Amino acid sequence: MTLLFVLHLVGAVLWVGGMAFGILAMRPALATLPPPQRLEASAAAHRRFFLVVWHVMPVMLATGYALLFGWFGGFAGAGWHVHVMNLTGLLMSAVFLAIFFGPWRRMRAALAAGEAADAAAANNKVRQMVTVNLLLGLLTVIVAGWGRFGG
Ligand code: HEM
């Protein structure tokens, strides 16, 4: 259980921290590049980060439910923070899938077809949806940490 808990925390750091880096550091840094290179660099960074999330997301869900049932014996034995985390964790997963199969797929297709304007529009949508997921991720961490000590 301790190992699962540590994996859960490492996953949260990689996922939420990765989104914070992307929105707060990478995006403003990319603005210094001319638009075509900006899109290419943005796509290259997203390709790598989304691969990380494809691994982290199942680990978060699997370790979360393992802790829920192994540690607390199910929803009835868990505090309010675990119930909220379950909801926001599932929402984060749904938003990630919506990004991946929505604007991210459109962005890759537009780049492959040389449609810079469409790629830029899709890139903007990816950014907006990642910002939503970053806020959900921060809320999840705040709730999880707050509720842990009975707040
Ligand atoms: C996917 C986004 C998620 C993030 C970012 C996240 C984050 C965290 C963090 C930071 C903690 C440590 C809080 C503490 O000090 O105990 C934690 C604990 C925990 N998480 Fe998650 N979690 C997520 C999803 C889930 C899901 C879907 C479940 C399933 C119900 C879950 C179940 C748990 C449980 C049972 C604990 C231990 C709670 C405790 O020690 O009181 N988590 N999570």
From TrEMBL:
The keyword Membrane applies. Residues 44-146 form the Copper resistance protein D domain. The keyword Ubl conjugation does not apply. It comes from the Bacteria. Pfam families: CopD. Keywords: Membrane, Transmembrane, Transmembrane helix. InterPro entries: Cu-R_CopD_dom. One of its GO terms (cellular component) is membrane. The chain crosses the membrane at residues 6-28, 49-72, 78-101, 130-149. This is Copper resistance protein D domain-containing protein.
